[in-house]
Specification:
This protein has 504 residues and is mostly helical. It has two domains: 341 residues, Growth Hormone, Chain: A (Up-down Bundle), CATH 1.20.1250.20; 68 residues. 79% of the residues lie in helices and 0% in strands. The chain contains 24 helices and no strands. Helix 5 runs antiparallel to helix 10 and helix 13 runs parallel beside helix 19.
């Protein structure tokens, strides 16, 4: 294995086991951030009176910022070195958490989530080629083992958030600090380590040759398109599961933990699955199960249905991300770090810029539809807020009094629009109820707000699942064609750098 040009490190030999362990902890930090951001969506919505779409943009920033770093830094992995990239990831994880903790509103929350996501993308930009380089003969298997720790990290983060809640520690700021624990550990594991040169550098492929081998391969372009859909089907719904199911009276974070736990176990035993089914066969089966599971999840109004649907969904999405990366690494080997970076980047870009915000927008539409379906009762609750909250304000102090007044003002604004147009205003109605819920203090009117808002939030969110489930049909067609083509060609073939087409 060729030594890296890194200078000034304590070790002079490469320690693959420690590098792999550090990579896994870095991915755990990335995954914990996903779990924590998903868990605090509801509290952020209430604390800052945000719409579902705004929350979608904040959580989406925690996704598409990933794309910025991986698109910019991934192709430069060879020049900057993996060691430098992982130092940058460490700084982003720490700084992003602090920005969010001290946030004053939507934009600072958005920026903090974006900075965390820059760290997440940098982890992928550095660690995917690192794993592929130190295990050149077992790329798909080891990438699946490495990516065990994405769902595994979500389990860790989800259980940590749930445990804090059970201890009565409900502040969303405290939950964010959970991200710092694996961050400090991976920073320590990488400290002083020597990193290898990437496989592309070791083979003498030029930077231009890497671009040509990636961007001029029709197979890569097809997989690039598919990555946007596979990532959207996996990560978009996972972002929304906790808050949507929680609104329906189900412990959504525990359902997310169940999904992620199954994914981690299945990825850990990816070797036998890969040997029995080709990677393209795995992708085809995954697309079928994902579509069924996600559509079924849109009907989850009880714990039993939620767990059953989540199980099928987990079986579907568990192999998507690492197998897509494995196929690219094995079928477009000359693409090196660039090909892997583009795949990871476009997946997160689709989730952050399109899927997560659009699911929020769809949810907002159907939340309002549900509130309109109980028009008379919704209006009666708003009128009760205007009537009873001023009494509560007289006994409140400081910020609580300000919150109560904001709830009164929001309810009055909705009633004024109703008087003018004869209709409840979209978005403003749900936000007025969210404002009233935040400042209810357990009052009778607050209980009525919960009784009308929570079912609407649950309904709108579940319908958003139903809207994106059909994307799986596109994948079934494409992966089915690739699988049949492999069978006609005598089976799935792994290309080496030497055997791959020379586009340099």
């Amino acid at each position: 294995m060729t030594d890296s040009p890194d200078q000034g490190v304590a070790h002079t030999t490469i320690n693959p086991s420690r590098l792999f362990g550090g990579s896994c902890l870095a991915l755990i930090a990335t995954a914990v951030s996903f779990a924590v951001l998903a868990d605090i969506m509801g509290p952020l919505k209430e604390a800052f009176i945000l719409t579902n779409e705004q929350v979608g943009w904040i959580v989406g920033a925690g996704t598409w910022g990933f794309t910025v770093s991986i698109f910019v830094l991934g192709p430069l992995c060879d020049a900057l070195t993996m060691r430098v990239l992982l130092r940058f990831a460490f700084l982003c994880h720490g700084a992003g958490v602090l920005i969010m903790i001290f946030a004053g509103g939507f934009w600072s929350l958005f920026i903090g989530a974006l900075v965390i996501s820059l760290g997440n993308g940098t982890v992928e930009a550095a660690c995917n080629p690192l794993v592929a380089t130190i295990y050149p003969d077992r790329k798909t298997q080891k990438l699946n083992k490495f990516h065990v720790w994405f769902p595994g990290g979500i389990v860790i983060g989800g259980l940590a958030c749930y445990g804090l809640g059970q201890l009565g520690i409900i502040a969303w700021q405290v939950r964010l600090t959970v991200i710092l624990v694996p961050t400090l550990i991976y920073g320590f594991l990488f400290l002083g380590q020597k990193f290898p040169a990437t496989e592309r550098l070791q083979s003498g492929i030029s930077f231009v040759g890497m671009f040509k081998a990636t961007l001029f391969r029709p197979l890569f372009l097809l997989l690039f398109f598919c990555m946007m859909i596979t990532a959207s089907l996996e990560l978009g719904p996972n972002r929304w599961v906790p808050s949507i199911l929680q609104a329906g009276g189900i412990h959504g974070i525990l359902v997310l933990v169940w999904i992620s736990g199954l994914m981690a176990v299945l990825r850990f035993y990816a070797g036998p699955v890969v040997r029995r089914l080709s990677p393209t066969g795995i992708l085809l089966a995954s697309a079928v199960l994902t579509g069924i599971g996600l559509f079924w999840l849109s009907f989850a109004e009880s714990v039993g249905i939620a767990v059953a649907a989540a199980t099928v969904f987990a079986l579907g999405v568990c192999y998507f991300w690492p197998t897509m990366l494995g196929v690219v690494s094995e079928r477009v080997p000359r693409g090196g770090a660039l090909a892997l970076a583009l795949m990871g980047g476009v997946g997160m870009l689709a989730v952050g810029v399109i899927t997560t915000p659009q699911m929020g927008r769809i949810a907002d539409v159907y939340v309002h539809e549900k509130l309109e379906a109980t028009h008379g009762y919704t209006v009666a609750v708003l009128e009760e807020i205007v009537k009873t909250y001023p009494v509560a304000k007289e006994h409140a102090e400081g910020g609580q009094a300000d919150d109560i007044q904001a709830a009164i003002d929001d309810a009055n604004a909705v009633l004024a629009d109703l008087a003018t147009s004869g209709k409840l205003p979209p978005t403003k109605t749900a936000n007025a109820l969210r404002s009233a819920k935040k400042s209810s203090g357990g009052s009778e009117a607050g209980d009525k707000v919960d009784g009308i808002l929570n079912p609407a939030e649950n309904y709108g969110g579940r319908i958003s699942f139903r809207w994106i489930a059909p994307l799986a049909i596109i994948l079934v067609i494409i992966f089915g064609a690739l699988y049949m083509r492999d069978r006609r060609m005598g089976g799935y073939k792994v290309e080496t750098i030497e055997s791959a087409p020379d586009d340099s």
